[in-house]
Amino acid sequence: MTSRERVLAAVNHQEPDRVPLDLGGTRCTSINPKTYAGAKELLGIPGPTRVLDVWQMLAWVEQPFVEKVGIDTLTVPRLVQDFGMRIDAWKPWTMDDGLQVLMPHNFEPVREEDGSLCLFLNGEKVAQKVPSSPYFDRLIELKRYDPLPPVEYFEMPLISDEDLEFRKDWAKALHAETDKAILGSLGPILGRWGSYQEWMLTIALDPGYVIEYYERKIENLLENARRYYQAVGDNIDIFWIMEDFATQTAMMISPEMFNEMVAPYYGRLYEWIHANTPWKIFYHCCGAVYPVIQTLIDIGVEILNPVQTSAAGMEPEKLKDEFGDRLTFWGGGIETQSVLPFGTVEEIKAQVKERIAAFGKGGGFVFNPIHNVQVDVPAESLLAMLEAVKEYGSYPLKY
């Protein structure tokens, strides 16, 4: 099978020739620059590593690596990433560990007295990397309004024509020149106006405010979806969107509140996508989302990621037994909080084998680690994981 055929067969709950593999198809299924650069070196792949996502410090997984290890996916990138970072030109930068990488050309961090590196957008500090962290944390998580402004205060931007043209060109080229499954995203989400804390307090104490905000935001999302489809058309196969509503132990809000106040709005977006495009809908939500998985299916989600199997209620066999005929599990392939960074090669391969056996029967499984591969993962461990996917992932499954 081609990669595109392989992924779409799995998503359609058919057994392809082997379990499809994603690494870098989205900003929630990718890899940090250190591990990626180390893996490239071990594989003899030359060239600098580019940082596509400055917020999460994620590498751009490029075609030579994709082909070398058998990845089945490619991403349609946004021209303008978080914090206004533009990826149409690059500049050299040295990471804390001495790794030489390429950053977006308008990456201009300001060093503060405590050693933190800060990013500014339109005069506002929007991100900060403290010396002990490899990541640029979003300062929206500290943002609080007192009192809350009228909902009309918040901008609801549309994707610019320049950005749409950039994505159009990428989608057209990737679809025509590769056999990979192509993933794309709007960028904007239903979201919130400030921190998680403020959103949770407001949805509990003033739900009407959140509803009013969502009513405006869904119209913005629908218009962005129309514009995006006009640009990329049928050149992408899978539409992905990410928004977290769960922790590792429970939902952030009650399942009833999610079903009543959040799901209907995403449902409107997914209904439009299903009615107007051939795209499959991929939804990323970390944590213990088991109580709302049926709701996600009901509103049109076909693919769930990251399948955080260490979270409450997210046991692999249970998920596959209850939802495996209606939902594709894109992730759950290996624990990135424990086994992948700290396990032996034997432990890594054993868990890959176990997860393919749990999720792979009848299709409905795309292998990906649970969320992005973090900086504490040795390159050798990543390659052991990739080798195990090849070793155990052929259909018919023997395990």
Describe this entry's structure for a reader.
α4 packs across α6 (207-232). The protein has 399 residues and is α/β, with parallel strands linked by helices. The protein has a single domain (3-47, 58-77, 143-392), classed as TIM Barrel, CATH 3.20.20.210. The protein has helices at 3-11, 33-43, 63-69, 161-177, 196-205, 207-232, 255-261, 263-276, 293-298, 316-323, 339-342, 345-359, 379-392; strands spanning 49-53, 58-59, 73-75, 90-94, 100-104, 110-111, 117-121, 124-129, 137-138, 181-184, 238-242, 280-284, 303-305, 328-330, 365-366. The model has no long low-confidence stretch (mean pLDDT 97).
CATH architecture: Alpha-Beta Barrel
**Fraction of residues in helices?**
25-40%
Report the biggest beta sheet as strand number plus sense, adding barrel if it closes: 7 strands, parallel
Please state the CA-atom Rg, rounded to the nearest Å.
Answer: 20 Å
Descriptive keywords:
four-stranded mixed beta sheet; TIM Barrel; alpha/beta; 15 strands; 399 residues; seven-stranded parallel beta sheet; 13 helices
